[in-house]
Amino acid sequence: xxxxxxxxxxxxxxxxxxxxxxxxxxxxxxxxxxxxxxxxxxxxxxxxxxxxxxxxxxxxxxxxxxxxxxxxxxxxxxxxxxxxxxxxxxxxxxxxxxxxxxxxxxxxxxxxxxxxxxxxxxxxxxxxxxxxxxxxxxxxxxxxxxxxxxxxxxxxxxxxxxxxxxxxxxxxxxxxxxxxxxxxxxxxxxxxxxxxxxxxxxxxxxxxxxxxxxxxxxxxxxxxxxxxxxxxxxxxxxxxxxxxxxxxxxxxxxxxxxxxxxxxxxxxxxxxxxxxxxxxxxxxxxxxxxxxxxxxxxxxxxxxxxxxxxxxxxxxxxxx
Length: 320
Ligand SMILES: [Mn+2]
Hints:
binds manganese (II) ion
């Protein structure tokens, strides 16, 4: 049965011992939403397998208590930010509700009731529930929900006006400063092996300048896609990164919006170049990849040539 925000908490008030269950590898949206509901209504936060890196850090900083892989001995389970049963690793759901924002929602079918909204985060839905209850919003709750909104919207890249409104409301209601949340999120270190890959890639770059365009290539042993993004973030217009594993060369590329507007289409580049090197590839205009066979140097050179030609088509630059 689909219900609205006020009905959602009214139903929950009938239960004593509620488990707010997050999907496996719980992210800040799942954990923050579960924590906020627990603070407002009472119960226990549970996660399947564990939290992701950012959520673990938030739990530590905010002192959020949760149970990993809980038993099914609760009166009622609220499944939070989860759309499919697979994400619960076979947790035996009997009497349960769902609060979620994902498009696919196969868990809703057998739920006692569910609250579904097409928002960019579950945190935004939870905020509406708490506001309908008229419950106060404490600093830790606001902190956790804002962190959930920031991460689920990709640092507001996919934010809607609702996401901004929710953050503004949370700040006003709790007295929290946005900079406090940002300070905490930016203090979370990235995985050390990923940082090493970024640094090594930066060290090994080859830079080609055409007019004011910078085409950058490099090689790493893993994290190719993230590494290409990191090279774009430090100045490349187009970054192409190769990793060789078991004879296969994996190539990941990223391009800035301006380069795309100037004619660079990485999906096409990967499709056509992968055919040339007996592999497969594709993706999006600004982010794409391929798995191919051959000499890494030749493959990267072919990619760079392709980018040069694409840029030349739209400008008067003539490739050498
Ligand atoms: Mn989410």
